[in-house]
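In keeping with the milestone schedule agreed at the kick-off meeting, the structural modelling team has produced records for the first pair of proteins. Each record is given below as a sequence line and a structure-token line. The laboratory manager (R.T.) confirmed that both were archived under the project's standard naming scheme.
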Amino acid sequence: MIKRAHMTAGVVLAAVIVLSGCGATKSDKAKSTPQPASTARSGSAVGAPSADSASSTGESGGKQSSRPTAPSTPTASPSVAAARPLKDGTAVLTHCADTDDPYATVAVRNPNGRQGLFAVRISYKNANGFTMTETYDEVSVPAKSKAKVRVAVASAGPVDEIARCEVNPRAAAVR
């Protein structure tokens, strides 16, 4: 009786696998025909292939191929292209260039969860509001932090003519 119970469990398991097409591709299903459950040998072990169940083990035409017992699950692989683009940061002027310190200082804040490189644009204006020149600089800022950048205005002309500095409040994310 115990031997018959094992045989019956094996036949039922084989039938479930064949009928569900577990691990078979569309072309495998079209090529193979399930064997009736009554063709299994009485002496075969549970889950072991028998000579009569050639189509359920992947044998066809004398060639043997193996099929996975369960469908594989794709895993995500890290990709540089899949990384989200950085959000722009913010820039705030903390010091305008003058004769005592010919550097403009800007604080840049990074709202992102990773380090980024941000572009800072500063305009130098005279007393009449005319833009004498503009400078552009890049600053690396750690994730969720801020950094200061000092920008020399040596090419802006006479520093003593600078009345005010204006910084673009949007620090564009470069990378």
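The second protein of the pair:
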Amino acid sequence: MSEQSLPDDIGPEPSDALPEYAERVLDATEAIPPGRVMTYGDVAEWLGEGGPRQVGRVMSLYGGGVPWWRVVRADGVLLPGHELEALDRYREEGTPLKEASRAAADHLPRLDLRRARWDGGEHAQVHT
């Protein structure tokens, strides 16, 4: 994705029009089944365009209306500032988690990416 198609210095457009890349990221997010996750990099790879930062930018600007908690960091750490809401949703959906170690300062679990990660296989209607 070129820097011109989603510049870092703009916010959401005032009209209802979304950049085409943003629509594709949001469609991919909606395709992730409950209880499963994709990393930012997974989404970019699945779309064949952009990278983790571009996907993260789209999610931060436009992702409030989709299951944003299903697009995650590659280290399994819960999204800073949204940890408790995401954790509630993971528990509701049965998303695999790893309990926090005793050394973890925040005592929050992490996602078990080995078990929770979705490859886009069984519901891959969005991917073209």
